[in-house]
Amino acid sequence: MSPDRSSAAGQNVAVANSEVTIDGDVVRKRYLRTDWDQPEREWTTLVLLHERAPGLAPRPIVRESEPPAVVVSRVAGDPFDAVLTPMQTSAMLTAYRLLFAVPVPPDLPLRFRHPAEFFAKNVGWLAEMNRNSLPDVVRRALEAAEQWHADALTGIDEVRDPVVVQGDCNIENMLWDGERVRLVDFEYSGVGDLAFEVADLVEHASSRLRGLLDPETVIAGFDLTAAQRARVEAYRIVLAAFWLLTLLPGSPGHGINPEGSTEKQAQHLLSLLGARSRQESPNWPRP
Questions:
Q1: What is the mean pLDDT of the chain?
Q2: pLDDT tens digits for range 61-79
Q3: Which of 127, 153, 224, 265 is 20 to 30 A removed from 14 (C-alpha atoms)?
Q4: Cβ atoms < 10 Å from Cβ of 253
Q5: Which domains are seen in the chain, by residue range?
């Protein structure tokens, strides 16, 4: 749950890595974890956006050190809970185009789990996974994904088109007020790669498992070159494999999604892998 969508004054909201207090139009987010510089990331990015894209995200008010917290303005709107209409999709794309158009400061760090980290995490996770008791379609998807990752695609670990990013394309972090979309939750933020972030928009389990976004419409909403579009398709495989891994027994997403989600995600991953295998080369030309 985002800290910015409740109207109850003084309400405390517990989320995964923080505790949020809402008091009228002011939100205080206290961090329960700081292992990847969450307070610094969120505060720095919100200050940047307030200067370069005012109104897109909460307005930073004050940063507190003990305990670590940020105080920001409350953002009007509610998260999407149904298939997005064309108007909503257009507003969502406008929000992310505004975000990606913000000039990247030279001292902004890479986002948490940037492409190289994401890819490396997948490789290690796939190698360790015991597949013996898994359904056949899941086992086949994992085996195919491991082979695909082993090919070490040229540039898979590079940030070629740097943009300022939210770092978490959970659809809960997009608030719709009936006219526009605003973005919240920037504790993973930093510098990302444009193609990776577009892929994250269409592959995030929060929207994909419920079919809330149309992938082709979203991808077409960005002015991508042929090389960038090829990178999006490759990163979709990386992200789809990651989400399948999170749905497996013993993983964070197991048991909290509808029955059949794991098999559905496995079929989706196999579909993406099949499409990729029909392309001429797994490598991407440099722009």
A1: 89
A2: 999 999 999 999 999 999 9
A3: 265
A4: 17
A5: 11-75 (3.30.200.20), 86-277 (3.90.1200.10)
